[in-house]
Amino acid sequence: MQEQYADGAEPTPRTRRRGRRILVALLLMAFLAVASMGGFLLYLNSKVGSIQTDTTLLPTAGSNDGGGTGEGTGSGGETLVTDAGTNYLIIGSDARPGETFSRSDVIILAHVTKKKDKVYLIHFPRDLYVQIPGRTKDKINAAYAYGGGALLAQTLQNLTKVKVDHAAKIDFEGFKRMTDAVGGVRVWAEQPSTQGDLQIVKGWNDLNGTQALAFVRERYQLREGDIDRGRRQMAFVKALMVKTISPGVLLNPVKLTTFINAATDNMTVDAGLSGSYIRSEALSLRNLRPDDIVFITAPFSGYGTAPNGGAIDILDEIRMDRLAEALQNDKVDEYLAEN
Protein backbone atom coordinates (compact mmCIF):
# COMPACT_ATOMS: atom_id res chain seq x y z
CA MET A 1 0.00 0.00 0.00
CA GLN A 2 1.00 3.63 -0.43
CA GLU A 3 3.45 5.01 2.11
CA GLN A 4 1.90 7.39 4.63
CA TYR A 5 3.84 10.15 6.35
CA ALA A 6 2.60 12.29 9.21
CA ASP A 7 3.55 15.71 7.98
CA GLY A 8 0.69 17.73 9.40
CA ALA A 9 -1.85 19.82 7.59
CA GLU A 10 -1.84 19.56 3.83
CA PRO A 11 -1.25 22.68 1.75
CA THR A 12 -4.40 24.54 0.76
CA PRO A 13 -5.70 24.11 -2.82
CA ARG A 14 -4.30 27.51 -3.70
CA THR A 15 -0.89 26.62 -2.30
CA ARG A 16 -0.97 23.26 -4.09
CA ARG A 17 -1.66 24.91 -7.42
CA ARG A 18 1.18 27.36 -6.90
CA GLY A 19 3.61 24.65 -5.90
CA ARG A 20 2.56 21.94 -8.34
CA ARG A 21 5.26 22.55 -10.94
CA ILE A 22 7.87 23.14 -8.26
CA LEU A 23 7.04 19.81 -6.63
CA VAL A 24 7.42 17.95 -9.91
CA ALA A 25 10.83 19.43 -10.66
CA LEU A 26 12.04 18.64 -7.15
CA LEU A 27 11.17 15.00 -7.61
CA LEU A 28 12.66 14.63 -11.04
CA MET A 29 15.92 16.39 -10.32
CA ALA A 30 16.75 15.10 -6.86
CA PHE A 31 14.48 17.76 -5.45
CA LEU A 32 15.87 20.50 -7.68
CA ALA A 33 12.99 22.76 -8.50
CA VAL A 34 11.59 26.07 -8.95
CA ALA A 35 9.13 26.74 -11.72
CA SER A 36 6.34 29.30 -11.96
CA MET A 37 8.44 32.00 -10.40
CA GLY A 38 7.72 35.02 -12.52
CA GLY A 39 10.78 37.19 -13.01
CA PHE A 40 13.07 34.36 -11.90
CA LEU A 41 12.31 32.17 -14.91
CA LEU A 42 15.29 33.34 -16.96
CA TYR A 43 17.54 33.01 -13.95
CA LEU A 44 16.28 29.46 -13.38
CA ASN A 45 16.91 28.56 -17.02
CA SER A 46 20.51 29.72 -16.82
CA LYS A 47 21.11 27.86 -13.54
CA VAL A 48 19.59 24.61 -14.83
CA GLY A 49 21.73 24.88 -17.94
CA SER A 50 24.88 25.18 -15.82
CA ILE A 51 24.42 22.00 -13.74
CA GLN A 52 27.54 19.83 -13.77
CA THR A 53 27.27 16.68 -15.89
CA ASP A 54 28.95 13.31 -15.40
CA THR A 55 29.10 10.69 -18.15
CA THR A 56 29.79 7.93 -15.59
CA LEU A 57 26.42 8.18 -13.84
CA LEU A 58 24.85 5.74 -16.31
CA PRO A 59 26.17 2.45 -17.73
CA THR A 60 27.63 2.25 -21.23
CA ALA A 61 28.55 -0.72 -23.42
CA GLY A 62 30.96 -3.06 -21.63
CA SER A 63 31.18 -0.94 -18.48
CA ASN A 64 31.64 -1.91 -14.84
CA ASP A 65 32.37 -5.64 -15.00
CA GLY A 66 28.79 -6.62 -15.72
CA GLY A 67 28.87 -5.49 -19.33
CA GLY A 68 25.48 -3.76 -19.27
CA THR A 69 24.90 -1.33 -22.08
CA GLY A 70 22.34 1.10 -20.75
CA GLU A 71 20.83 0.94 -24.24
CA GLY A 72 18.18 -1.70 -23.69
CA THR A 73 20.14 -4.67 -22.32
CA GLY A 74 20.99 -5.69 -18.77
CA SER A 75 24.35 -6.78 -17.40
CA GLY A 76 23.58 -10.37 -18.35
CA GLY A 77 22.50 -9.45 -21.86
CA GLU A 78 18.79 -9.66 -21.09
CA THR A 79 16.39 -7.21 -22.72
CA LEU A 80 15.35 -4.19 -20.66
CA VAL A 81 11.95 -2.56 -21.06
CA THR A 82 12.54 0.94 -22.43
CA ASP A 83 9.08 2.21 -23.37
CA ALA A 84 7.00 1.90 -20.18
CA GLY A 85 7.50 5.35 -18.72
CA THR A 86 10.74 7.10 -17.76
CA ASN A 87 13.00 6.09 -14.89
CA TYR A 88 15.32 8.43 -12.99
CA LEU A 89 17.97 7.28 -10.52
CA ILE A 90 18.31 9.80 -7.70
CA ILE A 91 21.41 9.40 -5.55
CA GLY A 92 22.05 11.17 -2.26
CA SER A 93 25.77 10.95 -1.54
CA ASP A 94 26.87 11.23 2.08
CA ALA A 95 30.54 12.04 1.51
CA ARG A 96 31.81 14.15 4.41
CA PRO A 97 34.13 17.11 3.76
CA GLY A 98 37.61 15.85 2.90
CA GLU A 99 36.48 12.30 2.21
CA THR A 100 37.38 10.66 -1.08
CA PHE A 101 35.18 7.61 -0.39
CA SER A 102 31.59 8.30 -1.44
CA ARG A 103 28.51 6.41 -0.32
CA SER A 104 25.01 6.36 -1.79
CA ASP A 105 23.02 6.81 1.39
CA VAL A 106 19.85 7.75 -0.47
CA ILE A 107 18.83 5.59 -3.43
CA ILE A 108 15.56 6.42 -5.17
CA LEU A 109 14.21 5.19 -8.48
CA ALA A 110 11.68 7.76 -9.72
CA HIS A 111 9.26 6.21 -12.21
CA VAL A 112 7.28 8.66 -14.34
CA THR A 113 4.38 6.97 -16.09
CA LYS A 114 4.11 7.08 -19.84
CA LYS A 115 0.93 9.15 -19.54
CA LYS A 116 2.77 11.61 -17.24
CA ASP A 117 -0.04 11.29 -14.72
CA LYS A 118 1.88 9.69 -11.83
CA VAL A 119 5.35 9.75 -10.30
CA TYR A 120 6.39 6.83 -8.10
CA LEU A 121 9.41 7.34 -5.85
CA ILE A 122 10.81 3.93 -4.93
CA HIS A 123 13.23 4.07 -2.01
CA PHE A 124 15.83 1.29 -1.92
CA PRO A 125 17.20 0.93 1.64
CA ARG A 126 20.99 1.17 1.60
CA ASP A 127 21.35 -2.16 3.44
CA LEU A 128 19.17 -4.11 1.00
CA TYR A 129 21.13 -7.29 0.19
CA VAL A 130 21.23 -7.81 -3.59
CA GLN A 131 23.39 -9.21 -6.37
CA ILE A 132 25.88 -6.63 -7.64
CA PRO A 133 26.70 -7.16 -11.35
CA GLY A 134 30.15 -8.67 -11.77
CA ARG A 135 30.50 -9.22 -8.03
CA THR A 136 28.94 -11.20 -5.20
CA LYS A 137 25.89 -10.27 -3.20
CA ASP A 138 26.29 -7.17 -1.06
CA LYS A 139 24.42 -4.20 0.34
CA ILE A 140 22.97 -2.19 -2.51
CA ASN A 141 24.91 0.95 -1.60
CA ALA A 142 28.14 -1.02 -2.14
CA ALA A 143 27.36 -0.88 -5.88
CA TYR A 144 28.00 2.86 -5.83
CA ALA A 145 31.20 2.41 -3.83
CA TYR A 146 32.45 -0.21 -6.31
CA GLY A 147 31.46 1.43 -9.58
CA GLY A 148 29.70 4.74 -9.07
CA GLY A 149 26.32 5.62 -10.50
CA ALA A 150 26.79 3.34 -13.51
CA LEU A 151 27.09 0.16 -11.43
CA LEU A 152 24.28 1.24 -9.14
CA ALA A 153 22.07 1.82 -12.20
CA GLN A 154 23.02 -1.62 -13.51
CA THR A 155 22.08 -3.16 -10.17
CA LEU A 156 18.64 -1.54 -10.29
CA GLN A 157 18.18 -2.55 -13.91
CA ASN A 158 18.87 -6.16 -12.96
CA LEU A 159 16.28 -5.97 -10.18
CA THR A 160 13.57 -4.26 -12.22
CA LYS A 161 14.36 -5.20 -15.85
CA VAL A 162 13.59 -1.62 -16.87
CA LYS A 163 16.11 0.84 -18.22
CA VAL A 164 17.37 3.63 -15.99
CA ASP A 165 17.02 6.54 -18.39
CA HIS A 166 18.64 9.32 -16.38
CA ALA A 167 20.50 9.88 -13.15
CA ALA A 168 21.13 12.75 -10.75
CA LYS A 169 23.38 12.93 -7.70
CA ILE A 170 23.24 15.49 -4.92
CA ASP A 171 25.57 15.65 -1.94
CA PHE A 172 24.08 15.88 1.55
CA GLU A 173 25.73 19.29 1.82
CA GLY A 174 23.27 20.36 -0.86
CA PHE A 175 20.30 19.26 1.26
CA LYS A 176 21.77 21.15 4.19
CA ARG A 177 22.15 24.35 2.18
CA MET A 178 18.69 24.00 0.64
CA THR A 179 17.20 23.63 4.13
CA ASP A 180 18.93 26.75 5.41
CA ALA A 181 17.96 28.60 2.23
CA VAL A 182 14.25 28.21 3.00
CA GLY A 183 14.71 29.14 6.65
CA GLY A 184 14.62 25.61 8.05
CA VAL A 185 11.93 22.93 7.92
CA ARG A 186 9.36 21.45 10.26
CA VAL A 187 9.55 17.65 10.23
CA TRP A 188 7.42 15.01 11.93
CA ALA A 189 9.44 12.30 13.68
CA GLU A 190 7.86 8.96 14.47
CA GLN A 191 10.56 8.15 17.03
CA PRO A 192 12.73 10.27 19.35
CA SER A 193 16.53 10.30 19.22
CA THR A 194 19.45 12.15 20.75
CA GLN A 195 22.42 13.25 18.67
CA GLY A 196 24.78 15.40 20.69
CA ASP A 197 22.94 18.58 21.55
CA LEU A 198 20.13 17.75 19.10
CA GLN A 199 17.05 16.35 20.81
CA ILE A 200 14.54 14.89 18.36
CA VAL A 201 11.12 14.39 19.93
CA LYS A 202 8.28 12.22 18.73
CA GLY A 203 6.16 14.74 16.89
CA TRP A 204 7.07 18.05 15.30
CA ASN A 205 10.68 19.22 15.13
CA ASP A 206 11.88 22.54 13.70
CA LEU A 207 15.28 21.93 12.14
CA ASN A 208 17.95 24.04 10.47
CA GLY A 209 20.29 22.59 7.85
CA THR A 210 22.82 21.09 10.26
CA GLN A 211 20.09 19.58 12.42
CA ALA A 212 18.24 18.21 9.39
CA LEU A 213 21.43 16.52 8.22
CA ALA A 214 21.82 14.81 11.61
CA PHE A 215 18.13 13.86 11.52
CA VAL A 216 18.35 12.02 8.18
CA ARG A 217 21.67 10.35 9.02
CA GLU A 218 20.55 8.74 12.30
CA ARG A 219 19.63 5.06 12.25
CA TYR A 220 21.26 3.32 15.22
CA GLN A 221 18.71 4.66 17.71
CA LEU A 222 15.73 3.76 15.51
CA ARG A 223 13.79 0.53 15.98
CA GLU A 224 14.12 -0.65 12.36
CA GLY A 225 17.50 0.93 11.70
CA ASP A 226 18.04 1.64 8.01
CA ILE A 227 14.34 1.22 7.19
CA ASP A 228 13.27 3.87 9.71
CA ARG A 229 16.16 6.02 8.52
CA GLY A 230 14.69 5.87 5.03
CA ARG A 231 11.30 6.91 6.38
CA ARG A 232 12.96 9.87 8.10
CA GLN A 233 14.61 10.84 4.84
CA MET A 234 11.27 10.76 3.02
CA ALA A 235 9.63 12.79 5.79
CA PHE A 236 12.41 15.36 5.48
CA VAL A 237 12.12 15.48 1.69
CA LYS A 238 8.40 16.12 1.92
CA ALA A 239 8.92 18.79 4.58
CA LEU A 240 11.48 20.52 2.35
CA MET A 241 9.12 20.40 -0.64
CA VAL A 242 6.21 21.80 1.39
CA LYS A 243 8.39 24.63 2.74
CA THR A 244 9.77 25.40 -0.73
CA ILE A 245 6.30 25.88 -2.23
CA SER A 246 5.17 28.13 0.62
CA PRO A 247 4.58 31.83 -0.12
CA GLY A 248 7.28 32.71 2.39
CA VAL A 249 9.85 31.20 0.03
CA LEU A 250 8.25 31.64 -3.38
CA LEU A 251 7.61 35.34 -2.85
CA ASN A 252 10.95 36.04 -1.14
CA PRO A 253 13.60 36.81 -3.80
CA VAL A 254 16.51 36.30 -1.41
CA LYS A 255 15.34 32.89 -0.13
CA LEU A 256 14.35 31.75 -3.61
CA THR A 257 17.67 32.69 -5.17
CA THR A 258 19.62 31.08 -2.34
CA PHE A 259 17.59 27.90 -2.69
CA ILE A 260 18.20 27.66 -6.44
CA ASN A 261 21.93 28.21 -5.95
CA ALA A 262 22.11 25.56 -3.22
CA ALA A 263 20.32 23.00 -5.39
CA THR A 264 22.24 23.55 -8.60
CA ASP A 265 25.70 24.05 -7.03
CA ASN A 266 25.58 20.65 -5.31
CA MET A 267 24.13 18.55 -8.08
CA THR A 268 25.55 16.39 -10.87
CA VAL A 269 23.43 14.86 -13.64
CA ASP A 270 23.98 12.57 -16.60
CA ALA A 271 24.78 14.19 -19.94
CA GLY A 272 21.28 13.56 -21.27
CA LEU A 273 19.66 15.78 -18.64
CA SER A 274 20.13 19.05 -20.46
CA GLY A 275 18.45 22.24 -19.39
CA SER A 276 16.03 22.04 -22.31
CA TYR A 277 15.13 18.43 -21.47
CA ILE A 278 14.48 19.29 -17.82
CA ARG A 279 12.23 22.19 -18.74
CA SER A 280 10.36 20.11 -21.32
CA GLU A 281 9.81 17.25 -18.89
CA ALA A 282 8.64 19.57 -16.12
CA LEU A 283 6.20 21.21 -18.54
CA SER A 284 4.78 17.83 -19.56
CA LEU A 285 4.05 17.10 -15.90
CA ARG A 286 2.47 20.44 -15.08
CA ASN A 287 -0.96 18.90 -14.38
CA LEU A 288 0.28 16.57 -11.64
CA ARG A 289 -1.25 17.00 -8.19
CA PRO A 290 0.57 16.27 -4.92
CA ASP A 291 -1.53 13.12 -4.50
CA ASP A 292 -0.09 11.88 -7.80
CA ILE A 293 3.35 11.63 -6.16
CA VAL A 294 3.62 8.26 -4.39
CA PHE A 295 6.38 7.03 -2.06
CA ILE A 296 7.20 3.31 -2.02
CA THR A 297 9.79 1.29 -0.10
CA ALA A 298 11.40 -1.52 -2.09
CA PRO A 299 10.06 -4.82 -0.67
CA PHE A 300 12.06 -6.63 2.01
CA SER A 301 11.09 -9.59 4.17
CA GLY A 302 13.14 -8.97 7.29
CA TYR A 303 16.63 -8.54 8.66
CA GLY A 304 19.69 -10.75 8.65
CA THR A 305 23.46 -10.97 8.74
CA ALA A 306 25.74 -11.09 5.69
CA PRO A 307 28.62 -13.61 5.49
CA ASN A 308 30.99 -10.81 6.52
CA GLY A 309 28.93 -10.17 9.65
CA GLY A 310 27.23 -6.98 8.49
CA ALA A 311 23.57 -6.31 9.19
CA ILE A 312 21.41 -6.50 6.06
CA ASP A 313 17.82 -6.04 4.89
CA ILE A 314 16.64 -9.22 3.18
CA LEU A 315 15.15 -8.64 -0.27
CA ASP A 316 11.63 -10.02 -0.73
CA GLU A 317 12.30 -11.56 -4.12
CA ILE A 318 8.68 -12.51 -4.86
CA ARG A 319 7.33 -9.03 -4.19
CA MET A 320 10.34 -7.48 -5.94
CA ASP A 321 9.46 -9.49 -9.04
CA ARG A 322 5.91 -8.17 -8.79
CA LEU A 323 7.13 -4.60 -8.50
CA ALA A 324 9.48 -5.16 -11.43
CA GLU A 325 6.62 -6.51 -13.53
CA ALA A 326 4.52 -3.48 -12.58
CA LEU A 327 7.30 -1.15 -13.71
CA GLN A 328 7.75 -3.08 -16.95
CA ASN A 329 4.03 -2.72 -17.70
CA ASP A 330 3.69 0.81 -16.30
CA LYS A 331 1.09 -0.43 -13.80
CA VAL A 332 2.57 0.37 -10.42
CA ASP A 333 -0.89 1.36 -9.21
CA GLU A 334 -1.97 -2.27 -9.52
CA TYR A 335 1.06 -3.43 -7.52
CA LEU A 336 0.16 -1.00 -4.73
CA ALA A 337 -3.45 -2.16 -4.70
CA GLU A 338 -2.32 -5.78 -4.22
CA ASN A 339 0.41 -5.18 -1.65
UniProtKB/TrEMBL annotation:
Residues 103-244 form the Cell envelope-related transcriptional attenuator domain. The keyword Transmembrane helix applies. Keywords: Membrane, Transmembrane, Transmembrane helix. The keyword Nucleotidyltransferase does not apply. Pfam families: LytR_cpsA_psr. The chain crosses the membrane at residues 22-44. Belongs to the LytR/CpsA/Psr (LCP) family. This is LCP family protein. It comes from Nostocoides veronense.
